[in-house]
Amino acid sequence: MIIEGLKSHGSGNDFLILDELTTNLTFTELERENMAKALCNRGRLGADGILFVMKSEHADCRMRVFNADGSEASMCGNGLRCVARYAHDVLGLDKLIVETMKANLLVEKTEDIYKGIPTFKVEISPVSFNVKDLPLIIEKETLQNETLPQLHDSLLFSALAVPNPHLITLVDAAILKSDLQADLSAKVNRPNELFPDGVNVSFVKQLEPGSIYVRTFERGVGFTNACGTAMSASSLVTCSVGLNDLEQEISVYNNGGKVKCVVHHDQENLTYSVDLIGNATYEFKVTLEIDKNHPEQFEILEKHEFEEETSLYAKLQDEVQSYLQTAL
User: Which of 45, 75, 279, 315 has the most CB within a 10 Å radius?
Assistant: First the structure.
């Protein structure tokens, strides 16, 4: 069969978008898993995951996210921005509701984060600090800025679901440059007694008031340029410990660029949500010949690069890297 895909990225976190919204494409669950493994292979096409944009019975569209290892993610913040832009382009709407696994979320086109770069604001919710929602197997209901002796004797961890499971710790430059994050992430993402389903692990460093750096080991992917839900969760954690303020923009830097986050607290319902604001950049459009039964044998028939878009984002990345060289 012949299919068209669109390679897009949010903060360097890259995805292949497959359109089931305006086409007749449809896939079984096994086909989605196997296509993700085949198409995301960095030796071939390459991506952190596949975004299936689908019809929805009660929203403008639906998003399903399959990681490079074939597993399905309940949410993806950077991917949601890419879907927001794609749906904006094909439906002609500046504000949309996107159905995700756990919630219907508001997305909208917003002011450019950097001149000429298409930028979208997406809602990250629901948020839960209950360890059962990750799950994390410990004898307490929450873990908020506390030690987790099974992992480390002095780091303070916060566990939350947004709704993807996240383990967040604030660190200094020395720990950030060490191998500790890789070691801990490997431990909690193979068979273990704490996180039976694995967990995303983020090390966070405060750069200055209102600015943080986040590096994430993403469950099912590994170290990524950025993880949208991780940056949102990390922003919330910094507010909870008093480093940053609720309802104020936080500049979040990552290896793939930067985003902005605004943490909201509904005091009446005691709930949190986060606005994640950042780029949705098209890299290339590709036409593939693929056998659903043997997707690893796919052939690239045609490829069109979005050179101006990638060049603009490269300028943002250069500025971010220059800043991080001094700030870290």
Answer: 279
